[in-house]
Amino acid sequence: MQVLRSIVCLGLDAAITWIAFSVLHVNGLIAGLAYVLAVLVVAARWGLTESIVTSVAAMLCLNYFFLPPILSLTIADPQNWVALFVFMVVAITASTLSSESGRRTAEAQARRIEVEHLYQLSLSLILVDTTKELGPQIAMSVKKQFDFVSVAFCDRSTGDIHVADSGDQRFENEMLRSVAIGEAAWFVSRKALHPAGFEMIVVPVALGGRNLGSLGAIGPALSEPAAQAIANLAAITIEHADQQVTISRMEVARRNERLRSTLLDALAHDFLTPLTSIKSAITTVRSEYSHDAEEDDFLAVVEEEADRLGEMISETTDMARIEPGKPRIRRRQLLVPDIIHTSLRRMRTLLDSRPLKVEIEHGIKSVYADPDMIGLALRQLLGNAVKYSPPETPIEIYANQIDDTVLIGVRDHGPGIPPDELDAIFERFYRGRQTQECTPGTGMGLSIARDIVVAHHGKLRVENTAEGGVQFSLTLPVFHGEKQS
Question: Is the peptide bond before 195 cis (omega within 30 degrees of 0)?
């Protein structure tokens, strides 16, 4: 193609020479201007190589046909040497500038087209269906907007490769996976392919320095900024879809949580009404009628259990009314032994048959806390220990001081918690997979205990012990003689 263009350029010079020399009989100045015009036209239309060929041929024609002695390549007048040199410099300089201008115009046009395609791609990615797999949708959108032969997207989290293909070209899957898991967030791999002008490009899909996958494309050559822009749009789409899914799940969880709390509150209220009647009837029977010792003992047990059931229902109602993460607390100075013994006393019926081991460090300082809330949190930990440990094993309660923090712990000797569930057990309504079918509960206790402790500027931790069982420990700030925020 370039040889044919060069021949056309020589033919153009020959045509100008014939017209100027044989037809119009113009002087050298007019001929030189005609040659310069031809050089500019060739440079603008084709390129630098063709314009230089035209310039050299024009210089020779100008010398041979228009500079004395005519029809000779020799130059008699030294001034004509200067004129010929100036013509050559002007012609080559003009052709270079014209060729560069044409190249930049072509690049600008190509960038404009790429920007238009990127805009259309951004519109199509906004409309992706987040309920379906994103990989195939991203690959198809990129292929459609940029007219690629094939496009592939590799998901880093799963390693799956999704291909939108309309040709026989194949991607190197290992290359896609290695780029997806790599650390080079702006690495672009290029490989020339047949037919000429086609290439395979692989670019990581990353956002905020975090790789989400990789994107590969086979087709016409693409600038590196455009490839990076495509990858950025894909990353933003993935991140946006993940956020939408997370927000939807949080909204569903919030509504479920509100519904469960409302139902729990309603059930507790409905239970409390007949329980009040039972309590009133038992009190009347015991006070108004005479009974022998054995009957009175039975009635005393019924009355005691009714009181205990009333406390449990009231406590459950209070728990249902605690907004997740925002318990209402009223702090005051509390003695740590009082917190522990009060909680044990309120749970005496549940703990009567259990071996207890209580260790409280001598001289431990007071804490600044809400007695009802902290007592509720500690009772949740004790109740959890009773539920999930064998009846014959002891429950250990200990308290000690570390600098300006008091630590209260509850340890049992049960089967422990699977390591992958240690973080999840503090979620509201979460029940362990191994115990949710065989152990009663709502899954609220540990979540509420954590919220209460956090509201007191403390921490609630859980860990499996080396001897077997689970150890919960909560920390509280010590009391310094003045109110703390």
Answer: yes
- Top-ranked range on mean pLDDT: pick from 83-87, 283-287, 475-479: 475-479
Q: Are 31 and 65 in contact (CB under 8 A)?
A: yes
CA distance 165 to 158: 21
What values do phi and psi take at 4, rounded to 5? -65, -40
Question: 97-101, 147-151, 453-457, 474-478: lowest mean pLDDT where?
Answer: 97-101
**Dihedral sign from CA coordinates of 145, 146, 149, 152:** negative
What topology does CATH give the domain 332-477?
A: Heat Shock Protein 90 (3.30.565)
Q: What does 123-179 look like in DSSP terms, one character per residue?
A: HHHHT--TTS-HHHHHHHHHHHHHT-SEEEEEETTT--EEEEESSS----HHHHHHH
pLDDT tens digits along 86-134: 667 776 777 777 667 777 777 778 788 888 888 888 888 888 887 788 8
Helix (H, G, I), strand (E, B) or coil at 319: helix
CA–CA dist 365, 359 (Å, integer): 15
Tell me whether the CATH fold assigned to 134-235 matches the one assigned to 332-477: no
Say what the pTM is.
0.47
Q: Helices 2-18 & 28-45, crossing angle to 10 degrees?
A: 160
Q: Please state, in angstroms and rounded to a whole number, the distance separating the CA atoms of residues 280 and 303.
A: 9
What are the extents of the domains in the chain? 2-109, 134-235, 248-321, 332-477
Residue 207 pLDDT exceeds 60 = yes
CATH no. of 248-321: 1.10.287.130
φ/ψ (deg, to 5) at 418: -55, 135
Q: Does residue 77 have a pLDDT over 70? A: no
111: CB partners within 8 A, 6+ apart: 223, 226
Cross-strand pairs, 474:
408, 460
Backbone φ and ψ for 292, nearest 5 degrees, come out as -80, 175
Domain spanning 134-235, CATH architecture: 2-Layer Sandwich (3.30)
Residue 266: CB partners within 8 Å, gap ≥ 6?
A: none
Of 449, 364, 354, 347, which Cα lies nearest the Cα of 399?
364
